[in-house]
Specification:
Elements: H1 11-14, H2 19-30, E1 53-54, H3 64-78, H4 84-88, E2 94-97, E3 108-109, E4 120-124, E5 144-145, E6 156-157, H5 162-165, E7 168-169
Length: 171
């Protein structure tokens, strides 16, 4: 989940000691920048699938088809540093927070319904899925589990429901 300081984080996660450093370690691993965990998991070689996308971030310049072309080009050029790499090769769902410089300027293109700043929408969908075994054990301590939110079917996570849906640690 990418919130750029707009969306809530699970309260149970924020209660962890030194959570910022732990999340930084996980992020470095996911982006292939970790010197601590050099053995990145092998690429899944999935397909790029965009579900919803930000009207504000892309300034309504892109159709979904044009956005896919742009992301595919970025993936070829930037490789592991491309955001599309997270779903295509790591097998992760990517949700973005509704953001913007003013209320109402951003919304997920293609979503039928109302959103507010901080709601998370499903942006990238993996076609070959990553799993817990792909993440080194020491990094799993910051993973939060949900028994009520289904990434495969839920396009939107309401900002005010983040802690409700993600209320317990995986370990």
């Amino acid at each position: 989940m990418v919130n750029n300081c707009y969306g809530e984080l699970p309260q149970i996660l924020l209660r962890l000691e030194n959570v910022d450093a732990q999340l930084d370690r996980l992020s470095e691993f996911v982006w292939g920048e970790s010197s601590e965990f050099l053995s990145c998991f092998p690429d899944k070689c999935g397909e790029l699938k965009v579900d919803l996308y930000s009207a504000w971030r892309y300034q309504k310049k892109f159709s979904k088809e044009r956005l896919v072309e742009y992301l595919e080009s970025d993936l070829l050029e930037s490789k592991s540093f491309a955001e599309a790499n997270l779903s295509v090769n790591k097998g992760f769902y990517v949700y973005h927070g509704v953001e913007g410089d003013d209320v109402g300027v951003d919304y997920p293109v293609g979503y039928e319904g109302q959103t507010v700043m901080g709601d998370y929408f499903r942006y990238l969908v993996p076609t070959i899925f990553g799993g817990i075994d792909d993440i080194p054990e020491p990094l799993r301590q910051v993973l939060v589990k949900s028994d009520s939110f289904d990434f495969a079917s839920d396009q939107l996570l309401r900002n005010d429901q983040v802690s409700y849906h993600f209320s317990r640690m995986l370990y």
